[in-house]
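Entry 14. Two folds queued back to back today. First construct below, sequence then structure tokens.
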Amino acid sequence: MLETQNLTVRFGGHVAVNSVSCRFAPGTLTAIVGPNGAGKTTYFNLISGQLPATDGTVHLNGRELTGLTASARTRAGLGRAFQLTNLFPNLSVLENVRLAVQATKEGAHRRGLNLWSIWSDHAALTNRALDILQSVSMTAQQHAPVASLPHGDQRKLEVALLMALEPSVYMFDEPTAGMSHDEAPVILDLIRQLKKDKTKTILLVEHKMDVVRELADRIIVLHNGTLVADGEPGEVIASPIVQEAYLGKAKEAA
């Protein structure tokens, strides 16, 4: 269970996220929507530790994460994908995933400094990385440098890195941003696969309402940094406050 309690951040006199309290349960995908500047990505940054909160707390499975760094929160089980890819461009696809596997507790564990353990650990890391690449259909690109990959494949690789970290919470910030019409379905298929694991919690910031309608079990709406709606997709999308704050213009245009 991921929970934020009265989570707030102020920049000078501007309140970017205003006392947001929410619980996110395992086995659910929650879409976080709202107009530009509503505080969606800032809320993500507060949860994952990229920004320190002015007030409020973040808890995961009963453990308070509020004072922890972003890397410590990752080790605690928060996996974050960004609008822009966050990869090692000069390393190969396989090396990127193997480093992520190594960063997990199991991957980082060492049984002693001898040649056999070093070789066996390296082999285990590589095999795990290859398994993950197979699950995202990137085995054929394993030796390619990341910088040579098209944007869509880089986004797929970022999902692979998240999977390698074995988080309990997956956080996707506009995962199809910058992707072509042909590339986007691949990422959405990966998220659908992750949804099948009912031990995982998924948070998704997304502007495309067709994606939200299809994937989300729940929608929360932020407007001017404040939580203004929370519920099942059909109920939230139909609510007057959402139509006015976010969907009204799109509906009129349609």
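Second construct, same run, same settings:
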Amino acid sequence: MKYRLFGRSGLRVSELCFGTMGFGTEWNWGTDRAASQALFDQFAEAGGNFYDTANIYTEGTSEKYLGEFIASDRDHFVVATKYSLRDRFNDVNFAGNHRKNLMRSVEGSLRRLGTQYIDLLWLHAWDATTPVEEVMRGFEDLVASGKVHYIGISDTPAWVVSQANMLAQLRGWASFVGLQIEYSLLQRTPERDLLPMAQAWGLTITPWGALGGGALSGKYLRGETGRLPDGSVRRGERAMAIAQVVGQVAEAAGLTPAQVAYRWTMQRPGLSVIPIVGATKPHQLADSLQTVAVELAPEHLAQLDAASQIELGFPHDFLASEGVLQAFGNSRQMIAP
């Protein structure tokens, strides 16, 4: 596996990230400690050094297992965890983006991980109540203390991310170097604002849900059962039609559907994308790891793009319309790319 710089930073991470939300069985799925260790080792032996978890995953077991697995060579591994979501039900300050929860959550993650620092700390989801200034000042204090090395943001509107990074830049604080979002052939709405924003700020994108909850692997076309109900966004008519095209491309290219779905995210023009791969079985992870050794042909990318195309909406469609382009007096066409 090759390594890439993470956003506008010098942090070196593998070109795939292993998501450890399934480490632990508290949520009635996932893997026990022995199976989790085997998956961790399998990813590491393939050259992977980038692991993603969160305070809330399997009620803290994911962080605990991951901390035990990295202990023998802590500085080799890049560990990303998150704060924002609850550690305790019905307690107003045990969730949210605010400073009190940030500091409390980080201390809890450090204890569970058994480490003195977190390589990458994500804000997990925007709470729409905490001032951006408070969030960024808290992150700056953690980075200055050495408890956190880099910061990223997940599941947050593009305008909030831009506001936060501009504030941090102006004040000389740590700024976000990564963006974690749902992005796949089934979920392309981030192309309206989140992806252009990430490109402008040089953020590396770590998509979750790149397989659409398994839909793009073809499991539902094969009649397999899953946790997604029939008729849901990921199992509706559109999702099934896209999954069929993924299967056709996979057959034509000699790949598996999962490899096609992951690779499509990695070949988005102008973007730095490191998909989060998840697995509960060794053969699933082995299949995903082969993604780094393949590349989709232009005709296959075009076929996938056409099958999953969305309307960008206003102002994007308006600005790309012929009337607006003519209003610029042909000046755009006169500028060399």
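Quick look at the second one. Residues 165 and 288 are 33 Å apart (CA to CA). The mean pLDDT is 96.
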